[in-house]
Specification:
The complex is a heterodimer of chains A (about 475) and B (about 525). With about 475 residues, chain A is mainly β. Chain A has 2 domains: about 1-25 and about 375-480, Immunoglobulin-like, CATH 2.60.40.1220; about 25-365, TolB, C-terminal domain (Neuraminidase, 6 Propeller). Chain A has helices at about 1-15, 250-260, 395-400, and strands spanning about 30, 45-50, 55-60, 65, 80-85, 90-95, 100, 105-110, 120-125, 140-145, 150-155, 170-175, 180-185, 190-195, 200-205, 215, 265-270, 280-285, 295-300, 305-315, 320-325, 335-340, 345-350, 360-365, 375-385, 385-390, 405-415, 425-435, 440-450, 455-460, 475-480. Chain A has an 11-stranded antiparallel β-sheet, with no helix packed on it. The longest helix of chain A has 13 residues, at about 1-15. Chain A starts with a helix and ends in a 7-residue tail after the last strand. Chain B is mainly beta and about 525 residues long. Chain B folds into 3 domains: about 20-145, Cupredoxins -  blue copper proteins (Immunoglobulin-like); about 150-295, Jelly Rolls (Sandwich), CATH 2.60.120; about 315-525. Helix content of chain B is about 5%, strand content about 45%. Chain B is built from 3 helices and 36 strands. In chain B, the strands form 7 sheets. In chain B, strands 26-27-28-29-36-33-32-31 form an 8-stranded antiparallel β-sheet, with no helix packed on it. A 6-stranded mixed β-sheet of chain B has the order 1-3-9-8-5-6, with no helix packed on it. In chain B, strands 11-10-12-17-14-15 form a 6-stranded antiparallel β-sheet, with no helix packed on it. Chain B is globular and about 80 Å long. The chains are: A mainly beta (about 475), B mainly beta (about 525). Chains A and B meet through strand 9 of A and strand 20 and strand 26 of B.
């Protein structure tokens, strides 16, 4: 809003030391580590090891154990090569003294048996899915869930089809090594991780049947959107009959009614704005050591070299969420990431094959919170007639209570077999009321209309904190799978 | 097209040339690969050329150019009929068809030669004439007349985000200007992404006839002559493919128009033409590495950028290795011996000597495709799809093969374990029998006397009429002290019987196999 902007600029002018609006780095600094000279450390998976150590798996098939990465001084980091020669490592999980690594076609248990810091054992735990020789058949593995299972998401053969067993599926590997087909409909995963309650999520990438990258909720028995791997229902009796095929050039909200196994994305990682290539998923379980976003999800992007933040809620039995930009400026394309108990996110990656804004061919970095609270929308929740925003700091009631401080557009993507989708079915939403409540900590927006299935893109350029600061990120993308009944 | 800028090239070099100037060609030998780093070189007819030949290998090599049509392998091998005489000539054949040659260079030596390319266009073979090298160490010098270049070249730069060539005529250029070099180039400004360029100039057809125009671009491009489309490669893609279009032209000047756009990532643009009386002539500053091959040519697949060097410990490389299915495990051992073991067939898929593997195909860009071994004398003892063990009704029965890329439900892959020297032993289960398959090395397979010793152990109830196939194939034959698989690679194993095209042993708790090579790749006395 114009008046507020003038007020803010005046404030800037008056307080000459306060030169510019705050930036992401004022709250969440990135620490860049030196990497071993002997290799290109294309980090594709990260696991926490006992004793404050880490294990890094790379696209070149190496595992490096890392010491000193939690120290303030990044030059204190040291590396040891634990294993090499694996066919890409997109998943690492530590359990009982062994490292369970997911390579392109197996889960392999690595163990250092003679105590020299290098693995001697490379025992195949499960290799029951197929590999065709196509470069695209990436395979991402999770950590162990509460039942002791590993979850894998198996990329299709290329973008469209599944040429070998269970490509385009999520599977679980039980402790005895058996494989349980769990969800169909996977296209091209970029990461897999757990939510605060142990829910399993993965990210999928823009392409056929995906208008944009998405955050997806893996519920056993469901279909995640891309029918390319339907043939394997014949080998998965536990999954029941093959679902009906989704109609081409349709909408997710329409096909959900036809295809009962279809789960809509929790959130669209809006293409070109949030990112172009979603990757790892981290849930903040640090109990406040990472700032005011406890239990929220942090989703990385390879091509944008950034991390976005997702707040998820369940509405009418379906998960849906809102995406906020969070932190850009990583040095390479992010692929692997983990958060430790101290609330430090370790993130690494490479730009190989797809390019990344970061500009470096590979990187290993740490993101942490410095204790200062940014002025952000902490949560955005759907309401029957609009949304409710909760802020990390009290708002300026005049600015936040003015409907002119906000604007909203609504759109969706074509759900189709062709690659990607433009933003379609635009709806200009009117914000008819903005009511500040909760001692300046929340704002209730009344929006007309709400459109089921649409992404609701909210801009909040006019909102100011009680201190006169603009929002660190003044845009939010809410995927409204369901409108709350009350 | 988005991809990393790193790109290692080999196999071919085409040099943009101006006949008056001396051009320099660099050729080197690759270490432990029995190859030159290039197999195709192009020069204009009558060009003055400086040739720099460097031997980076550990063996002696030369570089000998022959007249068109010479069977260079036969000429080189013929020397072995009178090795004493050949040795005196330092392995240079006494042969009138040789028109240029270097000396026999010892390891790490370098030689420079200056010469004038033949006046007659054609393809002139070159080869290393040292015994045993010619089969793989060879290439071609392509001598071609050049055509004229563009004149009066101008560009118009447009900004925009497109997925295919836009209608440039409907757009307003961001900037226009001349290109003094008269060579098409894309670095006209700082824009790296989301731009398009229209190039216009004149091209002179010396005589009436059919002319070809070539483009290779990242991303889309098309060439129009006198306003008519001749060749097009639209949309977003890498510049690996050269496209060709033909047009009949009258003698005289014609209007040349090239439209191009770049979305994001890598940006390349190559244009060329050929016509009556002249060979493919680049019209762009960037010359496609396969420009001499014309349309259908691709950037070479065999990059040589990232050889995996084996030191005192074995090096393991799990990736797509050509000849070993989709679950190949490469192991490079000290002493110049290498294998690929297949976790698809549970069998030894490949044995070779020399250099181990080149990881560039898989570690540059997205990493598609199967990479062959980097070294030489690559043999597949039992084939890519043969199971290691089977129960046979009779030894005459056909050996069981898997469909390509498939596995057998009777076998379970168990992984591998490294011993104290980091040598892997592979394990699998075969119908209740626990099998381990490990390899050790003695000596050096390049210098001579190298041995690869394989031990297969079986634990459990061994079936009657169970056999282990040591090797298979038409070339298999008995030699003194064992059997030759092919290419001089021998295997010795106790109790083996050659039945038809299979070398079999009955399954037993331990089978020891020793692989050796018939000869070192260099006669010892001829190193000088």
């Amino acid at each position: 809003m114009k008046l507020n902007r003038i007020l803010f600029l005046t404030l800037l002018g008056a307080g000459s030391l306060r030169a510019a609006p705050p930036t992401e780095g004022d709250y969440y600094p990135i620490v860049t580590f030196p990497t071993p000279k002997e290799t290109a450390l294309e980090v594709s998976s990260i696991e926490l090891l006992p004793g404050d150590k880490l294990a890094l798996g790379t696209r070149r098939g190496e595992v490096w154990t890392v010491s000193g990465a939690t120290e303030a001084d990044p030059t204190k980091v040291s590396y040891q090569l634990f294993a090499a020669g694996q066919h890409e490592l997109m998943g690492l999980a530590w359990k009982d003294g062994s490292l369970f690594a997911t390579n392109r076609y197996e889960v392999v248990r690595m163990k250092d048996e003679d105590g020299d810091g290098r693995s001697d054992l490379f025992q195949t735990v499960c290799d029951k899915w197929g590999v065709s020789g196509d470069y695209h058949e990436y395979c991402f593995g999770s950590r162990f869930d509460k039942a002791g299972d590993l979850w894998l998401v198996l990329c299709l053969t290329g973008s469209f089809s599944s040429k070998t067993d269970f490509r385009g599926w999520a599977v679980r590997v039980k402790p005895d090594g058996t494989m349980v087909p769990t969800c169909s409909g996977i296209r091209s995963p970029g990461g897999i991780g757990f939510g605060a309650e142990g829910e399993v999520y993965y990210t999928d990438n823009q392409g056929p049947w995906h208008g944009a990258c998405t955050l997806q909720h893996l519920i056993p028995g469901t279909f995640q959107g891309h029918p390319g791997g339907f043939a394997w229902y014949d080998k998965a009796p536990n999954m029941g009959p093959r679902p009906v095929e989704p109609n081409d050039k349709s909408r997710m909200v329409v096909e959900r009614e036809r295809v009962k196994e279809l789960v809509p994305p929790v959130a669209y990682m809006v293409h070109g704005k949030v990112g172009n290539s979603s990757s790892f998923i981290v849930c903040d379980m640090s109990g406040g050591k990472f700032g005011p976003f406890q239990k929220q999800l942090f989703i990385a992007d390879q091509s944008h070299s950034n991390i976005s933040r997702v707040f998820v809620e369940e509405v009418n039995g379906i998960q849906q969420g809102v995406v906020f930009p969070f932190r850009k400026g990583f040095k390479s394309g992010l692929i692997g990431g983990r958060m430790n108990e101290k609330g430090q996110i370790f993130a690494g990656g490479s730009d190989r094959g797809w390019g990344a804004k970061g500009g470096q061919p590979y990187s290993f970095e740490r993101l942490e919170w410095n204790g200062k609270v940014p002025f952000e929308v902490q949560e955005m929740r759907a309401r029957p007639d609009g949304f409710e925003l909760f802020f990390t700091e009290p708002v300026d009631a005049n600015a936040a209570g003015d409907v002119a401080s906000y604007s909203m557009r609504e759109f969706t993507y074509i759900y189709q077999a062709a690659y990607g989708s433009p933003e379609v079915d635009d709806v200009e939403a009117k914000i008819t009321a903005a009511k500040v409540g909760n001692g300046g900590r929340s704002v209730r927006l009344t929006v007309a209309p709400l459109t089921k299935g649409h992404i609701h893109e909210l801009h909040m350029a006019g909102v100011r904190s009680g201190m006169g600061l603009p929002l660190l990120h003044d845009v939010a993308y809410y995927t409204l799978n369901e409108i709350p009944r009350k | 097209m988005i991809r990393p800028t790193l790109f290692a090239l080999a196999g071919l070099v085409a040099v943009p040339v101006f006949a008056a100037e001396t051009q320099t060609i660099y050729i080197k030998t690759l270490q432990a690969q029995m190859r030159y780093d290039q197999s195709e070189i192009s020069v204009p007819v009558g060009a003055k050329v400086k040739l720099v030949f460097e031997n980076t290998d550990d063996l002696p090599h030369n570089l000998v150019f022959f007249k068109e049509g010479t069977d260079v392998v036969a000429v080189s091998n013929k020397q072995m009929e009178k090795p004493e005489e050949a040795l005196k000539r330092n392995w240079l054949p006494d042969e009138p068809r040789i028109w240029l040659h270097t000396k026999l260079l010892n390891p790490k030596e370098k030689e420079e030669l200056e010469f004038t390319a033949p006046d007659k266009g054609g393809s002139y073979p070159f080869v290393c004439t040292f015994p045993g090298h010619a089969l793989t160490m060879q290439g071609r010098l392509n001598v071609q007349a050049e055509g004229t270049k563009l004149t009066g070249l101008r560009f118009a730069l447009y900004l925009g985000s497109w997925e295919q060539l836009p209608d440039f005529k409907a757009l307003k250029p961001h900037r226009e200007g001349e290109i003094a070099s008269n060579l098409v180039e894309i670095k006209l400004d700082d824009y790296k992404n989301q731009f398009g360029v229209v190039y216009e100039g004149k091209i002179n057809a010396a005589k009436e006839g059919e002319y070809s125009f070539y483009v290779a671009s990242d991303d889309g491009s098309r060439v129009l002559i006198d306003g008519k489309k001749v060749v097009e490669h639209d949309k977003i893609h890498p510049s690996s493919d050269i496209k060709e279009g033909k047009v009949k032209l009258k003698a005289g000047e014609h209007q040349f128009r090239l439209e191009y756009f770049q979305a994001a990532g890598n940006a390349d643009l190559y244009a060329g033409w050929k016509g009556p009386g002249f060979g493919i002539t680049p019209l762009s500053k960037w010359v496609h590495p396969k420009s001499a091959g014309g349309a259908g040519a691709k950037k070479p697949q065999d990059t040589t950028g990232m050889p995996l060097v084996v030191g005192t410990e074995p090096v393991i490389y799990r990736n797509f290795i050509a000849g070993a299915g989709n679950r190949g495990i490469g192991v490079g051992y000290p002493g110049g011996m290498n294998i690929t073991w297949s976790a698809e067939t549970m069998n030894l898929a490949l044995v070779w000597r020399g250099a181990f593997m080149d990881a560039a195909r898989h570690w540059i860009n997205r990493g598609g495709g199967h990479q062959p071994p980097l070294g030489f004398d690559v043999v597949s003892p039992s084939g890519e799809t043969a199971l290691p063990v089977a129960v046979l009704a009779s030894t005459q029965a056909a050996w069981p093969q898997l469909p390509a890329g498939q596995r057998s439900a009777d076998f379970q892959w168990k992984g591998y374990r490294l011993d104290a020297r980091r040598f892997p032993t592979f394990g699998y289960e075969w119908s209740g029998v626990k099998v381990s398959d490990g390899f050790g090395v003695e000596g050096d397979a390049i210098k001579g006397g190298g041995k690869l010793v394989r031990t297969v152990r079986m634990e459990g109830r061994l079936p009657e009429n169970g056999y282990f196939r040591v090797a298979g194939g038409k070339q298999l034959r008995q030699v003194e002290g064992g059997f030759e698989i092919e290419k001089g690679v021998r295997v010795a194993v106790e109790g083996a019987q050659l039945v038809g095209e299979s070398l079999l042993v009955s399954v037993r708790p331990e089978i020891k196999l020793t692989y050796t090579w018939a000869a070192a790749p260099m006669p010892a006395q001829s190193a000088k």
